[in-house]
Amino acid sequence: MPQPEAAIQPAERLENEAAVIETVERLAERFRSGAVERDRERCLPHQEIAELKQAGVFAITVPRQYGGLGASARTVGEVFRILSKADPSIGQIPQNHFCFLPTFSFGTPEQADFFYQRILAGDSIGNAHSENSRKRAGTYEHDLRKVDGGWTVTGKKFYSTGAAFAQWIPFIGYDDQNRQLMFFVDAKAPGVKLVNDWSGMGQRTTASGTTLFENVFIPDFHVFPYYLAGDATRPTRLLAALIHSAIDLGIAEEALDDLRHYILNQNRPWIDNPHEHHAQEPFIIQAFGDVSHDVRTAARLLQGAADDIDRAWADGSKDAALHAGLATADARIACGNAALKVSDQLFALTGARSTLAEYDLDRHWRNARTHTLHDPLRWKLFHLGNYYLNGVEPGPRSLI
Q1: Is 296 in contact with 384 (CB distance < 8 Å)?
Q2: Which residues form a coiled coil (predicted)?
Q3: Contact at 8 Å (CB) between 104 and 67?
Q4: Of 84, 106, 107, 108, nearest to 95 (Cα)?
């Protein structure tokens, strides 16, 4: 079977969850120093992602039975919040890796052992399951065919976040019983081409552009029964919304820090302000209290949702997973709205000079506005309303 190139150096093993947070905080502080330049120049963070892999961060959720740490949802959420506060593009790049990694457990023991060992060695998972078409999400136009010993695929994918940095590029297809399968393509396989054509106004360096497959062969050993992940409320599917919430919260927290710093160090008092400093104006104090309240509330909801996911993983019941999903929807809405609000109010509370290119403060709004569009918050509000008002659970394909 085709195997990827081995990592140049074996990735480090993080011994406990405290070490994970300490490592991520150390790396994130260094990543922050280059965030503005990367945003301006659209420079992809290859070195930064390589450092995260080498440090063992991409392997923290490998199950313990395969030699991993089996990190909690609480720790995963913290990792993404910390990284996204420093640079939300770096924060978003591993999102699909952590969401799709549990898929290996749905395969045979040999498949699971092989792929988990590759992750422990420093490999990562990208993404190529979306297509840039007007068809309903989950409808694919690729040409997928069963052949002797595996499958072949030809098609054009988009929103390929993480693929440019990954050894494995997964996409979703259907078997002859219309069940979802996940195919893990070796990024070095003949017929794979990555195009860095992501031109979004925000999240500029996620490399969320095009992946082309031209008669690419995928061995059966690299194909997994993704339908075993269950519906959107199952514990294996809950990390996606939690991670997106943590990315939004990281954006909100960094924007809030920049807002506070600018008010205290850059602003001059308005004509009608009776005080010597802008930060003493009552309206500024009240407005800062408003936006900071939203950010702190979102943080608490995120922590609560992560704890609910951990309980759902331990419990294993559908009811526990459902309520963890509802809690995560609450967190996603709060984190997304907080990121949008503080990144917008940053300018209203500081003035025209804060829009100068030298500060690049608009990156917070661009990143928040772009990332919060990943899946519509209006539908999360609908599902929450329909459940708490009418007792109707979200459908099996709903993204709550």
Answers
A1: no
A2: none
A3: no
A4: 84
pLDDT digits (tens, 9 = 90+) for 187-223: 999 999 999 999 999 999 999 999 999 999 999 999 9
- Please tell me the CATH superfamily of domain 235-390, with its number: Butyryl-CoA Dehydrogenase, subunit A, domain 3 (1.20.140.10)
- The two tokens of residue 328 are 């995560």
Phi and psi angles of residue 8, each rounded to the nearest 5 degrees, phi first: -60, -45
SS3 181: strand
Residue 67 to residue 353: CA distance in whole angstroms: 53
Closest among 104, 102, 124, 107 to 115, alpha carbons compared: 104
Residue type at position 333 = I
Residue 229, amino acid: A
Give the helix/strand (H/E) hosting 146.
strand 143-147
Domain boundaries, the chain: 17-121, 143-228, 235-390
Taking only the tens place, the pLDDT of each residue in 219-272 is 999 999 998 887 655 667 789 999 999 999 999 999 999 999 999 999 999 999
Global pTM value: 0.95
Q: Residue 77, SS3?
A: helix
The CATH number of 17-121 is 1.10.540.10
pLDDT, tens digit, 9 for 90 and up, residues 311-326: 999 998 889 999 999 9
